[in-house]
Amino acid sequence: VPDRGRGCAPTLTIGIYLPIVFTMRRKPGTLLPLEVDILDAGLALRRTGTPHFYGFQLAKTIVDLAKASTALTAHGTLYKALARLEDAGLLTSTWEAPDTAAADGRPRRRLYEITGAGERALAAHQAQHTAPGRARPAAGLGPA
Amino acid sequence: MTTSDRAAALVTWWTTVYTRRLPRQVAQRRQDELASDLWEQRAHARQAGAPALLVALAILRRAIAGIPADLQWRHHQLAAARGNPIKQPSRPMLASRRHTFARTWWLVLAALLGASLIMGSAGVAFVDWQFDASASRPTIWPSLWNTYLTYPLSAGGILLVAGLALRPRARVAGDVLLALGALPMLDLYHLSMDMPPLGAVLIPIAPLAVVTMAVLDAAEARSLSHSTLTSRGSSSRWLLAIATILVAGLVATGTRIVVDQLLTGGRVVVALMYATAVITLLAAIGRRTSGDHHTT
Lengths: 144, 296
Hints:
The structure holds two protein chains of two kinds.
Chain A: H1 14-22, H2 33-47, H3 55-65, H4 75-87, E1 91-95, H5 98-104, E2 110-114, H6 116-129
Antiparallel strand pairs in A: 1-2
Chain B: H1 3-18, H2 24-48, H3 52-65, H4 67-81, H5 92-134, H6 144-166, H7 171-186, H8 197-224, H9 234-260, H10 265-285
Helix pairs in contact in B: 1-2, 1-3, 3-8, 5-6, 5-7, 5-8, 6-7, 6-9, 7-8, 7-9, 7-10, 9-10
């Protein structure tokens, strides 16, 4: 039986390959498109002096970076991806102080911040996906 | 309680449904995050002066689009709570394609509809002219019936193409044109009776999907932005004017057909849809607002 974690020995039985395909694990450092968007938007917010960001703000920033041609990320998709990035150590999060939220008369925000590992993962992804000589412009927030 | 508050309440209810029987801390975190998100979206829309109906549509769209992810997240949380966590399968290429497809499927559909409407309506007019000539009728004009048929269809195709071209620059204006352009094809449902099963399903559903997605997308874009359609610049104003004239023509045509066809039920519906769509979309999206501030 092949070692599923490190590839498999050659065999002609397709039935052995199928479970390998369906249990394939993510390679360390591999980012999905929405995760790239999240990290990109988080870093863009940091550049504008907002290192901590919350869910709706992030979704709105992703739309702004896409020049408004894309829709707001769905609730379930967004928070599932945020949790995934946090589990992977690319984001950290904490609840906002209750007093701050109460003073503004709104619910508490869950504040996220990109970690050093998150920055490195995005940089590695961009380096991997940018063709030589075709540097991808750094994402930046335009005027609101 | 506004319409957007009711939509938020519905989403809150859904959140309590799919977090039921999860560990208390996990469920509470998701519910609190959603409560914050819903509040922020409504607060942002209020400051942008967006109508509550459009905000409600934008909120519901986000919630509905996220249902598969919600259920999958619940499944994973339940498994983790039982001490048997599920590892995420990784298929970056598949995920990338799915991500692109989820964002663009209705635009691709709109492009296909636009092309088929323009080519199809031209084909109908041409075939009719040939038929009339062979029948030795002393006319070079298409029959009255085909004039009525091709005019709304070709106008719809032009609107779809114009909407796709405009959307990257002005999302709301582009969406309005896409919605108006797909409307005439809803009138083709009667053709689906003669189609193979796939066509019978696609002909009514495809334009309906484009209209629905365009309206939802316009609602969200409008709820995020301060700009009204009419303040977008002269090009948008011109396109809006052209769209209005075209749709007014469609309404007039539809009304005439209603008379000619002795009030056939389907055409009454279509004529009413044109009128309702124009009034609703232009009133809601082009409505001037008082908001001057912007939140981040």
